[in-house]
């Protein structure tokens, strides 16, 4: 970045990485502010679940409070994966029903994909584990060594 351009204009560069400890010293020198973005807090997780698994009128309420309580330590990416897993369960049920039939079902007779049920949420929670906790100590050390401390 230094010496890359000959101009009086300021250039703003925003970069992100999940593995900041793998950045070399030359890159670290060029990144003026290094800010650790923590894992989502309960309010953020609630908003993510409401956005990714919206309640459908006439369907059973999705247990957002259960999801929030059981996803401490999950990253945003982990939560997105959990929601995809939960949303796939009704399709898997439908595919299982169709596979059990011996005859070919005409398109107009195909059953509809059902709603997400509480048991789908339980399956998704069992099948989707948090990933960021594996490196929690490395994030803390990197932040202590190189992070820009943001005062609130």
UniProtKB/TrEMBL annotation:
<dbReference type="GO" id="GO:0016853">
    <property type="term" value="F:isomerase activity"/>
</dbReference>
<dbReference type="GO" id="GO:0005874">
    <property type="term" value="C:microtubule"/>
</dbReference>
<keyword id="KW-0413">Isomerase</keyword>
<dbReference type="GO" id="GO:0000922">
    <property type="term" value="C:spindle pole"/>
</dbReference>
<dbReference type="InterPro" id="IPR041569">
    <property type="entry name" value="AAA_lid_3"/>
</dbReference>
<dbReference type="InterPro" id="IPR027417">
    <property type="entry name" value="P-loop_NTPase"/>
</dbReference>
<protein>
    <submittedName>
        <fullName>Katanin p60 ATPase-containing subunit A-like 2</fullName>
    </submittedName>
</protein>
<keyword id="KW-0493">Microtubule</keyword>
<keyword id="KW-0963">Cytoplasm</keyword>
<keyword id="KW-0547">Nucleotide-binding</keyword>
<feature type="domain" description="AAA ATPase AAA+ lid">
    <location>
        <begin position="64"/>
        <end position="101"/>
    </location>
</feature>
<dbReference type="Pfam" id="PF17862">
    <property type="entry name" value="AAA_lid_3"/>
</dbReference>
<dbReference type="GO" id="GO:0005524">
    <property type="term" value="F:ATP binding"/>
</dbReference>
<dbReference type="InterPro" id="IPR050304">
    <property type="entry name" value="MT-severing_AAA_ATPase"/>
</dbReference>
<keyword id="KW-0067">ATP-binding</keyword>
<dbReference type="GO" id="GO:0016887">
    <property type="term" value="F:ATP hydrolysis activity"/>
</dbReference>
<keyword id="KW-0206">Cytoskeleton</keyword>
